Amino acid sequence: MGDSRELHPEAELGRKSKPAQEALPVSRPAAWNRFLIPSVADLIFILLVLSLTVGALAPRLLGDAGTGWHIRNGELILETRSIPRADPFSATMQGRTWYRWEWLFDAAVAAIHGRTGLAGVVFLSALVIASSFTLTFRIALRGGAALPITVAMLMLAIGASAIHLFARPHIFSWLLALVWFEVLDSAEDSADTRRLYWLPALMLVWVNLHGGFVLGFALCGIYLIAGLVRLLRAKDSVEGEGIRRWIRHLAVASGISFLAGLVNPFGFRLYMHVYQYLSDRFLMDHIDEFRSPDFHGAAQQCFAALLLVAIAALAVAGARLRTSELLVVAFAVYSGLYASRNLPVSSILLVVILAPLVSVELSKASQNTALAPRVRGILARIDAFSGRMGALEARFQGHVWPVIVVIAGILLSVHHGRLGSSQLMSARFDSQRFPVAATDWIEAQGIREPIFSQDYWGGYVIYRLYPQSQVFLDDRHDFYGDEYLKRYLKIVRVEPGWDRELESLSPTWILLPRESTLTNILKEVPLWKAVYEDRTATLFRKENAGGDGP
Fold first, then answer.
1. How far apart are CA 268 and CA 147, in angstroms?
2. Quick check: helix, strand or coil at residue 167?
3. Other Cβ atoms within 10 Å of 295 Cβ, number
């Protein structure tokens, strides 16, 4: 995100300037080493892919039940070769218009799931997440950041994103937001406005992948505001004309992007639906991911650490940043504090902007005579090490090992995570978090009536039981609307009048977490009988219902 450079010569800072450390002599690796030895960027990519597929982070990707209904909806798209306009999964909303804005993701994961099962869905998600953070690392280095500083800040960004490491379409917004930012920032920085016209093509894909496409318009608005500020500060007519040209091209590219965004199954109605969704105060206040982060969690504390870095960097050298960068930092900080779901993109933006700033300031500190000689010596050694590592990083460009990992991951996914007799990739929904055994029992009993359950279980129930059974609710909160969700919350919280609300829905089957408040209450109500229970879930049947099942 950019702005005037008249007060901040690139020789002094500038995100696109090369760090002075690169001038240090570094032994040149042999030609074959340049291709066979992985760079740090390669290692980041490889480690993330492995962690998310066969390592400690692997269980997180299927930690959100919404993945289930995305797959089933994609199967409908592929089967009918059309995009659903009305909901097929809910017993309570039959025929209601469903804005399937993520249809492209759904179709893609359904096609992959059909060939590889959940293993392929997990591997695709791991690739997208790893690519996002690897690209973040490379952009920060190109901007002049020291390698150790960038790695440290990137680890914080990955930690802050941990709460949203799910196999869902929002991860594509991380990658597309970063690419969108880089197009804007590099175009402003180089005055080469032609690259701005990649934005409409990006928007054409983004608008059909995830609702986060609105972030692209927000970033365009930030750059337009920054351009106007630069214009007001222009020192002469020549500089002013260059800024006007930049603003014109950005405005045209933004306008074309807006039109490109209309190329979706719902046209302008999708824009209106997203606006109504994001402006619904009840939904924003009651959906966990839209609420402000709770800084008692580890992920939120990683974001807090990035905020502290941002405060320190801006206090010391904030004036050196361009206006656009300052505005993007302010936007990233505000959006991250506003809603937990924004933490990944906010963290990524903070890294690519602040890592170069922090790196330059630490390099300058190594020459600051006001510091103790021992401190200057430590900083000088760190600075020299950073320079050598940065130079080596630039020379290892073979990327052989990431390619091998991708090929191996594809082959492993095709074999459903198995290598011979060993199950290397265990891609499955956690039986302690989701009602795995309970849905096995429901399926075996041939129960075909709709099942009332928690919203965060609905997607899993759809994945396991559709079209055998439908749900009363799942996590498509924008689809169900606030009035229906108010009724649902009254029921699951057992608030006064909950029984009347439940009766008005007329469910025969209720599937709940074993230890929930509603579960304990229903066990005391003669009308409901617990017909199945395990460590995770309890299934109730309405007495004298006369429906399918036992």
1. 44
2. coil
3. 12
